[in-house]
Task: inverse folding
């Protein structure tokens, strides 16, 4: 079951990296720009989480194959992705993976903060921060107002709901694995609904 | 007297949050954007201060009611503030509170760095960073050149002057409370003069 | 020999500060903006390096004369630099110093991460981050897409090559000073070639 969660986390990192790569290609950046945005997007949220929780070494410096994989992905992207970018099926595929990644990152932030003994509300915020901050940095680096701050289909809200899913299930079952799955499921389902039915928050 | 300082600090956090909320509303962000900018603005300076001084847990994760109050404020803002935004009296009111907040944040950064044994110049810088960094992040998140970097009525300079006020009074009296009050008073008075007489730095 | 490396580092800090000052003047910022961008550019990379490696106190809070020198430089810049800005010889001079600074920052990041026992790939990344992050922050603060993410003459790539130069020479000689010089030389020469022959990465 732990392998299941590791797989979801890896999916999250790779999908987040892909959204960074797309942004970089849209802005016609070279390989350095592509790789930088891949790393910023994939590692940004977890890095801020580790800074706030004072966890060292940072997860991506300890798991050094993550930055290496992202370099490979950045190089490959110039060959493979080009043709895919304009297929709407591919965009949908990315949105689905991204929702899984959001849920997994939210779970990791909430779970760690909860273990460290933070108040549930702060733990839930930590889940959201872990889930969305990479994308915020990606958009700032691309000189745009961050996507999550704009009024579109709910995104951070899904991560927040998922975080509370984790906390409630954890309180009831005391089982971290089940709680993580609940968080990912809640985030994912809510996000899919939001995309399908264009659910937005009122201004 | 400690309650007095706590009150000023709370005023600072809430006013800074309000300026984030205004910025978010101007950019037509939804509740997530409003809440994010409220938190970034109110907690950004103190978070960077705590990172630099290696203080853990961060102040807003320890005082978990701060983020909760800011969420309430963000929700309320859609009902209450709308009508107020265009009254010039309200803007003046915010500017006055903001100057108090700036002074209180500058005092907290300077005081902590001084206690940690940093050089007075570094302590004064830490006061300025604590006072202005939240606003810098707010403006970057809103995709604008930060207000404090632009040539307008002096702002960071007031925090810097206030920080030196703290350090001098602390050296003379060894009384933290009096020094904090001196810092807030110096920052506040200078800022009010700057706004009243349009005092700017030369280019 | 250690004095040699210290000198290179000081050159790096001052040159990076100068590029921040230029950016600030181009955007017509006042002294506060000029000083802020000088500090952000000169200290940004080393600060992120110290945060990631969990080194405290931060280098520029321990060496308090660095921020003081930068303040002096910011004040002086309004008098001295104005006339120089438009001489092409001066711009070339800055580009040469900047390449030295980039190499020295890359060496410091790689060397420290390597000492802390990180994987060579992560150590090389740390060199790049230390070398380029200050400039990234400078550009974001000036509301532009960071220079290093755009497709221009290779820059981060030079720091990356220099970092590997450090690691290889360190492995062979176990002499930190020689390895640092190798890093600076590799970075500098590659950067000079890149500028001279307009070497860019393909998109």
Result:
């Amino acid at each position: 079951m732990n392998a299941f969660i590791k797989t979801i986390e890896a999916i999250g990192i790779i999908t987040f990296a892909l959204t960074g790569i797309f942004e970089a290609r849209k802005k016609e950046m070279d390989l350095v720009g592509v790789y930088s945005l891949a790393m910023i997007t994939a590692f940004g949220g977890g890095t801020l989480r580790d800074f706030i929780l004072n966890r060292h070494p940072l997860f991506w410096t300890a798991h050094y194959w993550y930055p290496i994989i992202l370099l490979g992905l950045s190089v490959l992207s110039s060959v493979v992705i080009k043709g895919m970018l304009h297929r709407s099926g591919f965009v949908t595929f990315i949105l689905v993976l991204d929702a899984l990644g959001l849920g997994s990152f939210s779970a990791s932030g909430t779970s760690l903060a909860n273990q460290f003994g933070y108040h549930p509300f702060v733990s839930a915020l930590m889940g959201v921060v872990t889930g969305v901050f990479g994308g915020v940095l990606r958009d700032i680096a691309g000189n745009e107002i961050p996507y999550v701050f704009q009024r579109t289909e709910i995104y951070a809200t899904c991560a927040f709901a998922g975080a509370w899913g984790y906390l409630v299930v954890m309180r009831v079952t005391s089982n971290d694995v089940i709680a993580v799955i609940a968080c990912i499921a809640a985030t994912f389902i809510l996000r899919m609904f939001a995309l399908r039915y264009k659910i937005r928050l009122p201004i």
Q: What stands out?
A: Helices of chain B lie at 2-26, 31-53, 59-62, 65-84, 88-115, 120-141, 156-173, 176-197. The mean pLDDT of chain B is 90. The interface with chain A takes residues 24-25, 27-33, 36-37, 47, 51, 56-58, 61, 64, 67-68, 78, 140-143 of chain B (CB under 8 Å). DSSP finds eight helices and no strands in chain B.
